[in-house]
Amino acid sequence: MYDFKPDETLEPAELHRQLCDAADALTANESDGVANMANVAALIWEFVPRLNWAGFYRVVRNETEKELVLGPFVGRPACIRIPIGQGVCGTAASTGETQLVADVHAFPGHIACDAASQSEVVVPVKRGGEVIAVIDCDSPELDRFSKDDVHGFEKLASILSDRI
Ligand code: SME
């Protein structure tokens, strides 16, 4: 049994340090990427308060082009395929840059998968400089995510680079 017990009063930077330590420990000796994404989605859900969706979209090559395809997550059922360049996730995938969105309704082309979502952060996971997936977190609160959250999720993405 894995028994991570995050303290809800932790400052964001310390919360993310503990989240990264837990994710590192849980994925270090496992080569199955789906299992690792599933456990990390569950860890994000346990450690990071005030979320309504946390999980992954993977960059997948279909017959003609690359697209994002839904991966392991916690939350309500979500859009399955997102074109690269569209929505918050597709923008993170096409630019390779983290997208910190204080108000999703103000983001041109935002794709609403859960009407409860008000703010969102999407962080690319890269391997050898290429985006291979994105970590997506949604909150029902406006302006939920801080720079500490961005730095924490970016560190988490770097840990997962060769584990998903
Ligand atoms: N809002 C995202 C779509 C994915 S859901 O939030 C789970 C977007 O605009 O890309």
**Structural class category:** alpha+beta
Radius of gyration: 15 Å
Please state the average pLDDT score: 95
Query: Residue share in helices?
Result: 25-40%
Poorly predicted sequence stretches spanning 5 or more consecutive residues: none
Number of helices: 4
Largest sheet: 6 strands, antiparallel
**N-to-C series of helices and strands:** HHEEEHEEEH
* Strand percentage: 25-35%
DSSP E strands, number: 6
Distance between the termini: 22 Å
Strand arrangement, major sheet: 3-2-1-6-5-4
Bound molecules: methionine sulfoxide
Shape category: globular
Task: Please describe what this structure looks like.
The chain is α+β, with helices and mostly antiparallel strands and 164 residues long. Helices cover 33% and strands 27% of the residues. Strands 3-2-1-6-5-4 form a 6-stranded antiparallel β-sheet, with helices on both faces. Strand 5 (119-127) and strand 6 (130-139) form a beta hairpin. Residues 53, 78-79, 82, 87-90, 110-111, 113, 117, 120, 136, 138 line the site of methionine sulfoxide (SME).
